[in-house]
């Protein structure tokens, strides 16, 4: 701090002595540096020193229109620097560590959503996009594979809100739900997730989720839903997509001890599709119409194969980027 004050006073003296070499606008440099690295109280002293240099310069040099414009710019810079310093002080960070921390949190959220490697005969494809191209999304997925490799368990979750407003809650929930997944019997995962959300008492703390458990040996599966759009099963034998209507209350709204499963079996060539409501919802359009549109686009996908299909379906179905969108495809090749 002492170095910054000395540098500011030196700039002020140089500005008076060598006006043509050291312009008054140079006083923004210590302000910008101070905004990044100096605590708010110490920065106030630095702002005072800059103000003293400007007043002294105005008296000695004379305050023309150019000098007045420079004074306005320096004043705006001082206000911005003070605001930045207060923002840093809330987190106890210096410099650009706040942005680095946010990037790290975003990367951790993406890492927690990586799908495990599946055995021969199974493929999985997951894509999600944040609202308005934000770096954070309220949609996330967590997955776990049993130690013997036989059972795949995953959940696709949609946190209330969108973009960065929901991103912090999504990060917290992804860690909590990832710890629950695979650690509890399948029928206890959604009740435990619901109880966890209820304990948080967030003003906008609800979420929807779809929970899938698949036996990778037999292809038998269970799907449970907590207020989530229905999963869709493609039957290779008939060539048709069928919705799996499941019932269950939203997570974080009221206590619920049991979520009724829908069971089925994935045979060779079959596929399951999970998605969030941001993909099928649109203004002045019923949710069922959006699901019908998704099924129609999925039928076109069958002939080309499911590989890379999640991204293709999002591009074809999503009406806008105003909401977070996520889609997961799981299919059996043989």
From TrEMBL:
InterPro entries: Bact_Sigma-Reg, PPM-type-like_dom_sf, PPM-type_phosphatase-like_dom. Keywords: Hydrolase, Membrane, Transmembrane, Transmembrane helix. Pfam families: SpoIIE. SMART domains: PP2C_SIG. It comes from the Bacteria. Signal peptide: none annotated. The chain crosses the membrane at residues 42-60, 67-85. Residues 119-332 form the PPM-type phosphatase domain. GO terms for molecular function: phosphatase activity. The keyword Transmembrane helix applies. This is Stage II sporulation protein E (SpoIIE). It comes from Jiangella alba. The lineage of its organism: Bacteria, Bacillati, Actinomycetota, Actinomycetes, Jiangellales.
């Amino acid at each position: 701090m002492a170095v910054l004050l000395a540098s500011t006073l030196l700039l002020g003296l140089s500005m008076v002595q060598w006006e043509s070499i050291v312009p008054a606008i140079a006083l923004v440099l210590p302000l910008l540096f101070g905004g990044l690295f100096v605590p708010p109280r110490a920065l106030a002293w630095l702002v005072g020193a800059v103000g003293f240099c400007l007043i002294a310069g105005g008296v000695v040099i004379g305050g023309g229109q150019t000098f007045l414009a420079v004074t306005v710019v320096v004043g705006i810079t001082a206000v911005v620097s003070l605001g930045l310093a207060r923002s840093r002080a809330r987190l106890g960070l210096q410099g650009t560590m706040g942005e680095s921390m946010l990037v790290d949190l975003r990367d951790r959220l993406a890492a927690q959503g990586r799908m495990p490697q599946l055995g021969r005969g199974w493929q999985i494809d997951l894509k999600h996009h944040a609202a308005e191209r934000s770096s954070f999304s309220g949609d996330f997925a967590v997955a776990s594979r049993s130690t013997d490799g036989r059972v795949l368990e995953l959940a696709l979750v949609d946190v209330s809100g969108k973009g960065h407003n929901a991103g912090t809650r999504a990060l917290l929930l992804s860690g909590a739900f990832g710890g629950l997944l695979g650690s509890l019997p399948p029928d206890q995962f959604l009740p435990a997730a619901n109880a966890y959300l209820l304990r948080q008492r967030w003003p906008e703390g609800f979420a929807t989720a779809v929970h899938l458990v698949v036996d990778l040996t037999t292809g038998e599966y269970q799907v449970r839903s907590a207020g989530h759009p229905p999963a869709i099963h493609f039957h290779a034998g008939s060539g048709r997509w069928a919705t799996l209507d499941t019932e269950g209350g939203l997570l974080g709204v009221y206590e619920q001890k049991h979520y009724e499963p829908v069971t089925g079996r994935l045979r060779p060539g079959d596929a399951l599709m999970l998605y969030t409501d941001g993909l099928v919802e649109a203004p002045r359009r019923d949710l069922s119409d959006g699901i019908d549109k998704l099924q129609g686009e999925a039928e076109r996908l069958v002939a080309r194969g499911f590989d890379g299909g999640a991204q293709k379906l999002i591009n074809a179905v999503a009406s806008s980027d105003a909401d977070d969108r996520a889609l997961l495809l799981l299919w059996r090749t043989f």
